[in-house]
Design brief:
With 153 residues, the chain is mainly alpha-helical. The protein contains one helix and five strands. The longest helix has 107 residues, at 3-109.
């Protein structure tokens, strides 16, 4: 074989080797890029799952906190209502007691069936005897109608 054919064959072989090497390099680079892309996609999917799980956990915690706050608020309302009922009951009892005391005080000024108001003075009568009612100071107790001006009892 002539030398030019040999050189041509070597050049052709080198050209084929360079083309094969270039194609193989591009193929390997494409595979590596695909692997990197797949790894990135897997990592992104994993991060998305983790973010979704975190968001669900956060929503669940918020819901639990809200439920607890509602229960606490309900309990507080119940306690306040119970305290208000107790206060109202105590207030009613106090008012009734005060009313009874006022009635008792008023009754202590009212003449009983053995007493009369004669000429503006309380007179006690027992059977056929009549005596003037006297106050703490020893003076006769004044009256008007069936009421004395100071307590009789």
């Amino acid at each position: 074989m002539p030398l030019s054919w040999k050189i041509g064959t070597v050049v052709a072989s080198l050209l084929v080797a360079v083309l094969v090497w270039n194609g193989l390099s591009q193929y390997l680079a494409a595979r590596q890029a695909d692997e990197i892309t797949r790894d990135s996609a897997r990592a992104a999917a994993l991060e998305a799952q983790q973010a979704q799980a975190h968001a669900q956990q956060y929503r669940a915690q918020l819901a639990a906190d809200l439920k607890q706050q509602r229960e606490d608020l309900s309990n507080t309302y119940q306690q306040v209502n119970e305290q208000a009922r107790q206060y109202q009951a105590e207030q009613t009892i106090r008012q009734e007691k005060q009313r009874q005391e006022e009635l008792a005080a008023q009754a202590s000024y009212r003449l009983d069936r053995n007493q009369q108001c004669i000429d503006g003075t309380v007179i006690n009568h027992s059977g056929s005897s009549f005596t003037q009612a006297v106050g703490k100071d020893g003076q006769p107790i004044p009256c008007t109608g069936d009421l004395a001006t100071e307590p009789l009892r």
